[in-house]
Amino acid sequence: MSPTRRSAGLNEGSHPMPERHEEMLAQIASEYYLENTSKVEIAKTHGISRFQVARYLDEARHEGIVQITIRRPAAVPVEEAELARALGITTVTIAPTPTGALDERDRLARAAAGVVARVVTEGCRLGVSWSRTLQAMAGHLPTLPGCDVVQLAGSITVTGGSGSGALIHRLGAAAGGRTWPLPAPLILETAETAASLRRQPEISDALKAAEDLDVAVVALGDWAPGKSTVYERLSPTQRRAATAAGTVAECSGRLLAADGSAAAAGVDDCVIAVSLAQLKATPQVVMVAPSPDGVAGVRAAVAAGIVNHLVLGPSLAHALATELDLIEATATEDPA
After folding, report:
1. CATH of the domain at 225
2. pTM, to two decimals
3. Alpha-carbon distance 271 to 198, whole Å?
4. Closest to 33 measured CA to CA, from 19, 52, 53
5. Which of 68, 171, 228, 251 is most enclosed, with most CB atoms within 10 A?
6. Would 336 be classed as within a structural domain?
7. Same-domain status, 55 and 189
8. Does 206 map to a domain?
9. DSSP single-letter state for residue 233
């Protein structure tokens, strides 16, 4: 940032600024920005209030006397197409680095909505799981080509937000087609209770509809507290068993081991959701991976064959590219 001499009338249509006033603005700006003098000290020096100092600093920026330049550190670029080829999937979409008020979840949601809008076609059958990011994604899809919508995972109720049932109805309204809700909890306490619910006609129909999907939209969660919608819903004993079984990630309630197989944690029979086999049979699976630490999870999902279109943030993209030797682990800066 630098105070600069500004010629009178720099802004088109404005009246010339008196030179003495302009010099005062430049002096106050120099003391504040270059000499790190506090507003209180500047006010005492010039016999004005600190509120006037703040106003003069704003005026100096507005008039171009102070020009602020922010140089963001240059990240090593990751090519989406190159990363997709290295992973062996159809596309990778990297959400933009934050530059404004949008938080990471909303940037991922917008990116996911763009992918979904491209792959969903008239007359197809769309399956959607649930996560907070997918919930936000629906807000960026006010309309969809006419299609049927299937709920892929049992209901989850979250504090301060709507659950998976509301998401499916919202997308169904956007698509204008038939919906297959899944009116059951995602996880039951016992396999027997889950099996009993699966036999109910409405639940059975929804799970059967998931066998003939054209597009599925799912989220990938790391196997860690706060990173998975399932993790906190299991008992401590179940979590320990899942970790011991090698679980690295979770997708629609299904636990994944590092090699892409279903983690043998004794949880699968308690889950009411689309199966890994059904996802693998779906021609187009859009997967959102929100965790910046989700390298192992993404590699597991790719190995399982349950992702065609990956949506992720720049940190995870960089970590994946580094592991796949697409970029160097440490980038060196050019000498100044």
Report:
1. 3.40.50.1360
2. 0.75
3. 10
4. 53
5. 251
6. no
7. no
8. yes
9. G
